[in-house]
Give the backbone structure.
Amino acid sequence: MRNPEESELIEKYLSDDLAKEERMLFEKRLSADQELLEMVYLHQTLLRELGDAKQLGLLNSLREITEKPYRKTFIPNIKQVVTAILLLLACIWCSWYFLAYKPGNSSRQITAPEPVTPDVAPVIDTPKITPATPLASLNPADFQPNPSLEGLVGTSFRGDEPVRAYFAKPEQASRLLSRNGAVRVTMKGSILTTESIVSKDFTLIVYSNRETDFNAGKYLFSTQTIIQPASDGEFLFSTSPLIKLKPGLYYIVLTETGFSEPVAVTSFRVEQE
Amino acid sequence: MQQGDRDYEWLEAIRSGDKKGLTQLYQYVMPSIVKLVIRYGGTEEHARDLFQDTILILYKKLQYSEITLTSSFSTFFIAICRNLWANHLKKKSNNHVTFSDDIKSMYDDQPDWYEVEEQSLQTRMLYKALNKLGDDCRQLLELFFQKVPMDEIMIRMKYGSYEYVRRRKFMCKNKLIEFIKNDPSYKELTENQKGIL
């Protein structure tokens, strides 16, 4: 624009404030003056676009808003909510599991030596516990009698030596309850003999009902028991270890250390509490 | 609150110019816009411009018609941004830029979208030029464009005389026009306006 007068003339033309003659004269100028025409276009656009107070308010708000740093507002969708719940449940379960089975929790801790064959049972003072057997759901096969051991249940004589033994506990085919996968197995009984056996060692071995395991010498628990003289010709043995056993049928075999023939055999069933 | 409710609340915030709602929307969509723009060679400043352009397009559209959402609002919003950015790149490089199919379909269904988009970009160009002026000039022109009488402008701006208001207005308007003419998109504006006048 060349001067304020021309600017005002454009404003008056656009607001229709020119007299008829003035308007005709101005339009004649417009047709010949490209620069003036361009100014009219621009004025018209400015008045329309910047003259809208509401729109200008919006533009001012946007300018202020976008001057601020942005950060994403976290609004979770359903997938994120479900994932978060699952993660939370997993964390709770893990916490419970580690607290329940952490080392030092005596009611559940089962440690055991490497299984050895009954003939070379380790010499120990305290009962040793075999590797943990995971608690499994009830399986009828676990309650099937072991034919190789079933026939030996009771007492027997080893060779021609007059040694007999009896299990007072567990009684034959008794039922023991497992708690958190472990069972307190009280093995108690007496050995009757006419000869002195104080210097002899006896071993208590727990077998599963699997005949193949028994024939292969695989056992679940083994401990050397200390015998105490009770009366003339009678010696007592007693031990009460906590063994991790899943529900099923089990056999306890008492043998004189170094000999494979059982002196006494009993069986018991483990059921879940 | 359901997703759909929030979507329509954002549309309402744009229609009414509600600053709180617009701020929430800015916080929600900006990370996606910035990611999009930076991936195609732009900057955060471009992303801010895109956000403002898109809001203005929707505002203009909502002044005379409704918008029916066929996807979530944020998806719809980002699609408009993507389209604007594609057009910007196209103008800049003269290269073929893939047009967003969903938006193209929406624009083709309602051709006034093209017009609204063009007009919004022009408005933003003028507004940016206005903001390059000093506060005094900007306030004076804002009052003038809103058709506030000159004597009232004189009082509100605390100017000493009517003649000073005239001169000051002329000077500020010339400065504004200079900024506008220096804007690369000015040529397009004048060409399009010729058909309207």
